[in-house]
C-alpha cells in the first residue's frame, strides 16, 4: 500500500479517526507522517481531516496563508481550531472552504429560512439562480427558444429590482456569477452550432 | 427569577408528556446565530464578547415568551449550578466551561434556553417531551423571527446563516431526539441501527451529545448536515428515521417478550433488586439499571403511576443534581455514590415489586396487534 500523500513510498503509519461519527482513514509513509505532524494530534486532527489532504498541502504551498481582511484570522488559525474568526472569513477563505463544505453537507446553497428583512431580495436572487440553471440546461440541450425565454425573464427580473439590490449590497457582493457574462454567451453558441446539432434533421 | 427556584421543578420535557414519550424521551431543536460584522466568540476579545452579550441579552429578555425568565452571566454561576443545567440539557458542556462574556437565559418551563457566546454568539434551543420535532422547531423559529427584528444576524446569500464552525453553516439548525432503546441494545441490534443511520447522514450520539458515552440505553439522533436542505426537509427526514427506529425498538421488545421472556424478567428483577438494596452506586450503573426499570414500566410490570418517579431518577441521580440541595462543599465521588444509592432506595421503596405474573403477551408499547396469545 502506498502513502496517500507522496504516492511513492510504502505506507507504514495508518491513522483512523472518527470525526462526527464518520470514519476517516489515512495511510502515510514514515517521512510524510512526520512532515504532517501526525505525532502531534492537536496540530493534525481537525483541519487536515476536515479539509482533506489536498487542502492541507495548499496551506503549505503558501506559508504566509490567507488572512481575513476583516478580523485578521489566518488559515493556520483555522487549521488549529477548526473554527472561523468572523462571518467575513467565509468569503476570505471561500476557495478552500467550498471543497470542505461539499464533503460536509448535502449541497452548497442554503435553501432554508431567510431573515425577513432580506427576504425580498434573496427570493429574487434564488429565482435568478433557478432561471440561470434553466438557461444553462436549455443551452446544453440546444433548446434556444427556451433559452431566449429564460434570458428575457432574467433581464426583466434584474431591471425590476436594481434599486433594491443597491440597498443590500452586502448580500449580492457574494454572488460570484456574473449574469451578464453568461447571457452574452447565448448568441455565440447560437452562431456556431455544435457538431451534435448537425446530426439532427 | 432565581436559578434555585427554576431548578426546584423538573423541566417540562421531563415531567410533561408527548407523542411516543415511552421511547422518545425528548425532542430538541437548536439554532445557531451570529451578529453581522462581529468576530465569533472564540476569536473575539473580551470587550467585544461583553458588548455582544449585552446586545443579545437585551433582545432575548424582551421576547414575549421570556417573561419571568432566568438570566445569568456564566461567571456568576457556581460550577455546580452550571453542571445542573448541563444535566438538564439546558446548556452545553462547552458553554458551562465559559466565564466572562457568556450568559444563559431560559424560561421557567425550561422549554426555551438561550446560550449567549457559546461557540456562536447565540445558540437557542427548544426542548419538549416525546416526539415533537415540528412543535419545538415552530417554537424556536418563532423566537428567531422575533429576535431578527432587533438583531442583525450574519447571513450569506448562498451559504445562509454563518456560524463559527462550517459544520453548522446554512440553517444553523441541529434537531435531535433522545431515544430510550433497551430492546435494541438487549437484542444486540443497536449497532446495526446506528451504522445505517450514520450512512444516511444522521448522527447517533450518547446522552450528552458529541463524544459522550451511551449510558442508560439512551441515544441521541440528530441531523449531521445543515446546508443544502431547508429546515423542514431536515426535520421530516429525521422524523422518518425516528419512526423507523421506534418501530424497530417496539418489535425488539415484542420479540424479547416472546422468545426471551425469562432473560428480560431476570434483567428487570435484578435491576430492581440492586437498586432497592445498593448502598453505593455510580451514576453509570444507576442509569443502566434504571433503564431496565423504565422498560419494566413500559411493559406493565410496574404501575404506570410510577413512570415520572423513574424518569426523574434519570436526572436526579446525575452528579450535580445529587448535590444541588446541599450547601456543603463539593462531595467526593464515593460520597456521591452512597448519596445516590440512598436516594434511589427511598424512591423505589414507594414502588411495588415487579409483577412477574403480569407478563403481557401484547406489550403496552407495541402497536402491532399480531402478537401471539400464550
Structural write-up:
- The complex is a heterodimer of chains A (201) and B (374).
- Chain A is mostly helical and 201 residues long.
- Chain A has helices spanning 30-35, 41-61, 75-81, 89-92, 94-104, 116-140, 144-160, 162-167, 169-173, 179-191, 195-199, and strands at residues 13-19, 22-28.
- Chain A is 60% helix and 7% strand.
- In chain A, strands 1-2 form a two-stranded antiparallel ribbon.
- In chain A, helix 2 packs across helix 5.
- Mean pLDDT of chain A is 70; it is low at 40-47, 49-63 and 163-201.
- Chain B has helices spanning 3-8, 12-15, 46-61, 79-87, 93-96, 133-147, 182-186, 190-199, 231-259, 261-277, 283-298, 307-316, 319-323, 333-349, and strands at residues 24-33, 70-73, 103-106, 112-116, 122-129, 155-156, 160-161, 173-180, 202-205, 218-223.
- Classes of the chains: A mainly alpha (201), B alpha+beta (374).
- The A-B interface holds A 20-22, 50, 70-71, 73, 77, 81-88, 90, 97, 100-101, 104-118, 122, 125, 170-172, 174-175 and B 34, 36-40, 42-43, 119, 141, 144-145, 148-149, 153-162, 164-167, 169-171, 173, 198, 201, 203-205, 210, 224-233.
Explain the layout of strands and helices.
The complex is a heterodimer of chains A (201) and B (374).
Chain A: E1 13-19, E2 22-28, H1 30-35, H2 41-61, H3 75-81, H4 89-92, H5 94-104, H6 116-140, H7 144-160, H8 162-167, H9 169-173, H10 179-191, H11 195-199
Antiparallel strand pairs in A: 1-2
Helix pairs in contact in A: 2-3, 2-5, 6-7
Chain B: H1 3-8, H2 12-15, E1 24-33, H3 46-61, E2 70-73, H4 79-87, H5 93-96, E3 103-106, E4 112-116, E5 122-129, H6 133-147, E6 155-156, E7 160-161, E8 173-180, H7 182-186, H8 190-199, E9 202-205, E10 218-223, H9 231-259, H10 261-277, H11 283-298, H12 307-316, H13 319-323, H14 333-349
Antiparallel strand pairs in B: 1-5, 1-8, 2-3, 3-4, 4-5, 6-7, 8-10, 9-10
Helix pairs in contact in B: 9-10, 10-11, 10-14, 11-12
Amino acid at each position: 500500500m502506498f502513502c496517500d500523500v507522496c504516492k511513492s513510498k510504502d505506507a507504514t503509519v495508518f491513522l483512523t479517526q472518527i470525526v462526527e461519527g464518520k470514519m476517516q482513514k489515512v495511510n502515510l509513509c514514515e517521512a510524510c507522517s512526520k512532515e504532517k505532524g501526525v505525532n502531534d494530534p492537536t496540530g493534525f486532527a481537525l483541519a487536515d481531516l476536515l479539509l482533506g489532504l489536498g487542502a492541507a498541502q495548499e496551506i503549505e504551498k503558501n506559508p504566509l496563508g490567507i488572512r481575513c481582511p476583516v478580523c485578521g484570522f489566518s488559515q493556520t488559525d483555522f487549521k488549529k481550531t477548526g473554527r472561523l474568526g468572523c462571518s467575513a472569513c467565509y468569503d476570505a477563505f471561500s476557495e478552500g472552504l467550498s471543497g470542505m463544505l461539499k464533503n460536509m453537507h448535502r449541497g452548497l446553497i442554503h435553501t432554508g429560512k431567510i431573515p425577513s428583512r432580506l427576504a425580498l431580495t434573496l427570493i429574487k436572487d434564488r429565482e435568478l439562480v433557478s432561471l440561470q440553471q434553466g438557461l444553462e440546461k436549455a443551452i446544453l440541450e440546444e433548446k434556444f427558444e427556451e433559452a431566449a425565454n429564460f434570458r428575457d425573464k432574467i433581464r426583466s427580473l434584474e431591471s425590476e429590482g436594481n434599486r433594491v439590490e443597491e440597498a443590500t449590497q452586502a448580500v449580492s457582493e457574494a454572488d460570484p456569477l456574473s449574469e451578464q457574462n453568461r447571457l452574452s454567451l447565448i448568441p455565440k453558441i447560437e452562431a456556431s452550432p455544435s457538431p451534435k446539432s448537425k446530426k439532427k434533421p | 427569577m432565581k436559578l434555585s427556584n427554576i431548578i426546584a421543578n423538573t423541566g417540562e420535557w421531563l415531567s410533561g408528556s408527548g407523542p411516543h414519550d415511552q421511547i422518545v424521551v425528548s425532542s430538541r431543536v437548536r439554532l445557531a446565530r451570529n451578529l453581522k460584522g462581529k468576530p465569533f466568540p472564540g476569536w473575539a476579545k473580551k470587550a467585544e464578547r461583553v458588548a455582544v452579550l449585552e446586545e443579545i441579552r437585551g433582545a432575548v429578555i424582551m421576547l414575549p415568551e421570556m417573561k419571568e425568565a432566568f438570566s445569568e452571566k456564566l461567571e456568576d454561576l457556581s460550577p455546580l449550578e452550571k453542571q445542573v443545567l448541563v444535566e438538564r440539557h439546558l446548556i452545553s458542556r462547552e458553554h458551562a466551561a465559559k466565564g466572562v462574556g457568556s450568559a444563559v437565559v431560559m424560561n421557567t418551563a425550561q422549554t426555551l434556553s438561550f446560550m449567549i457566546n457559546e461557540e456562536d454568539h447565540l445558540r437557542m434551543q427548544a426542548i419538549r417531551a416525546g416526539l415533537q420535532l415540528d412543535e419545538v422547531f415552530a417554537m424556536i423559529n418563532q423566537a428567531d423571527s422575533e429576535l431578527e427584528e432587533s438583531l442583525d444576524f450574519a447571513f450569506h446569500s448562498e451559504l445562509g446563516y454563518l456560524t463559527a464552525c462550517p459544520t453548522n453553516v446554512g440553517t444553523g439548525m441541529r434537531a435531535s431526539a433522545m431515544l430510550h432503546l433497551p430492546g435494541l441494545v438487549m437484542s444486540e441490534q443497536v449497532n446495526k441501527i446506528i451504522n445505517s443511520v450514520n450512512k444516511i447522514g444522521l448522527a447517533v450520539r450518547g446522552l450528552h451529545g458529541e463524544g459522550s458515552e451511551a449510558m442508560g440505553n439512551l441515544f441521541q439522533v440528530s441531523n449531521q448536515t445543515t446546508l443544502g436542505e431547508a429546515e423542514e426537509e431536515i426535520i421530516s427526514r429525521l422524523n422518518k428515521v425516528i419512526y423507523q427506529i421506534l418501530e424497530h425498538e417496539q418489535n425488539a421488545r415484542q420479540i424479547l417478550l416472546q422468545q426471551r421472556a425469562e432473560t428480560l424478567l431476570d434483567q428487570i428483577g435484578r435491576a430492581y433488586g440492586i437498586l432497592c438494596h445498593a448502598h453505593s452506586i455510580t451514576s453509570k450503573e444507576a442509569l443502566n439499571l434504571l433503564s431496565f426499570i423504565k422498560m419494566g414500566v413500559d411493559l406493565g410490570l410496574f404501575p404506570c403511576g410510577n413512570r415520572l418517579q423513574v424518569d426523574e431518577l434519570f436526572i436526579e441521580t446525575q452528579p450535580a443534581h445529587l448535590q444541588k440541595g446541599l450547601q456543603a462543599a463539593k462531595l467526593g465521588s464515593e460520597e456521591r455514590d452512597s448519596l445516590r444509592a440512598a436516594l434511589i432506595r427511598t424512591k423505589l421503596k414507594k414502588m411495588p415489586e415487579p409483577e412477574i405474573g403480569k407478563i403481557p403477551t401484547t406489550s403496552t408499547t407495541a402497536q402491532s396487534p399480531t402478537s401471539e396469545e400464550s
